[in-house]
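Reviewers of the previous submission asked for a worked example of the structure-prediction workflow described in the proposal, so we include one complete record here. The input consisted solely of the amino acid sequence. No template or homolog information was supplied to the procedure at any stage.
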Amino acid sequence: MRLVTFTRKNSNLSEIGARIITRDGLFILPFSDVSNLKGVLNFPLDMKSFLRSGDGVMDQAKEWVSQAITSSSQLLIDAATVNYMPPITDADKFLCVGKNYRTHLAELQRTNLIKEIPQEPTCFVKLNSCLVGHNAKVTKPKAIVRLDYEPELVFVIGKRALGVKGKDAMNYVAGVTILNDLTCRDLQLREVASGSRFWTAKNVPGFGPLGPEIITIDEIVNVYDLWMTCSVNGEERMRVNTKDQIWKISDILEHFSRFIPIEAGDMFSTGAPGGVAVGKENADDLFLKPGDVVECSIEGISTLTTTIVDEMQ
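From that input alone, the workflow returned the following structure tokens.
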């Protein structure tokens, strides 16, 4: 199932539903419409509440999706008419693991963006205030010269996790989504020099495109064998397999749940693959500019699209 958070045309009301592909195209099934039609009381209205409601609510939604596909439900909305929001807009914790792909680690070492190789998972916090959805237009401030792209696989937690052992980690994962962890390299270099943890460089408003959907984990054959790609204006800039990750979700969830409860709706981004602009000799030609269209993908599964615009637009 593909879970989305969206607003309808000419509405600011946030809703949740499922993205469905039929013979007739791409549609959204709004869960609020289905629950009203079927007389289901108190169905969750936001994604965090939906995930925290447990397996029963998840199974109910999957049944509705199956029925909508087979019956060509009149409740389906043309996906082209909605505005996508980040699948989860209000996570209590969005933890981003850094230095987690061997290829990217080599880039960071070459460009002096790291001082030492971590011996265990490390992370920074991605703020909700910087998140935007699929098809968003992200403003590039004129003061930022070197804006870089970073496609990342994100794990969405489906139930409370505390003291989890690595072998059980996948039992706590609801699904995956995509983050384009847009990074201001200008700020990052200064923050590395000062010993900061990259907060500002990663949390400028708009620098967190997320989505377009949460793909439930039952639709992913092997999370450790996925191709993450990034294209700019149709030109592929990177293509790296998740098997290149140093710390798997089993390591990450065990590490961070040792003392802190990880709740349903919390997210872990698992780091940028190798191939970012800053790691290439012609980096100045590759940094993002107004007008660039960036597509970050889990190849063959889902694509997150972002357009960079000038701050005057």
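The first helix runs from residue 31 to 38. We consider this example representative of the routine output the project will generate in years two and three.
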